[in-house]
Prior knowledge:
Blueprint: H1 10-22, E1 31-32, H2 34-41, H3 45-57, E2 61-64, E3 68-71, H4 76-97, H5 103-114, H6 122-138, H7 143-163, H8 167-185, H9 189-213
Antiparallel strand pairs: 1-3, 2-3
Helix pairs in contact: 1-3, 2-3, 4-6, 4-7, 4-9, 5-8, 6-7, 7-9, 8-9
Amino acid sequence: MENKNTKTTRHEIYTTLFNRIIQNEYPEDTWLREDLLAREFNVSRSPVRSVLQNLEQDHLIEILPKRGARIFPFTADDLEDIYELRRELESLALRRAANSLSIQKLLEMKALILGLKDSLDFQEHARVDGYFHSYLIQSSGRRRLIRMLDQLYRLTQTFRELSLRQQFSKDVTIQEHIELIDALCIRDIEKASELLTRHIENSKIRVLTLVIQGNMVQESQVKN
């Protein structure tokens, strides 16, 4: 088992490489190699290989046998596409799920979200945020829809963490979630759908602003 006091976790490696790629920090001809990354993050090649496979699934790199991983340039247009796809698909999932959502479960989530109002733990904010959206998606019961949204999950979850480092983003996100939950609890589906669409659109704007301004920060520093 990896010693987290001296080694970097898979999550940290993924987030660090993810942030470098979306910020286009790597030169155009850069190849990511397992051995060099393992040395950089002070881990074995196994977690690095797993992270590279995740990045390939997210269409951020292409792994070529015996050569390494080639990086795909990431643009603001890619980011906009991701959020627009999420907006349309998650809105559909919400409409499919709305009437079957447990009011008690929604109220428990509301309490959980409000309980984080004064917390500075952005990762916990992101975890609860993702948990809430995952509940809405899974409750749709539509396997293909769920699968398609799952493909976007890791990308949006990482953007979610990076965005929630900003206090303003945390406060606005909490308020948007509470309004959405309240609408779902009274079965006002039209209002809930409108609120979800606006929430995802606002999330896109916040993340795009960070990317364009170059304010995304790395999850972790390389440990020596």
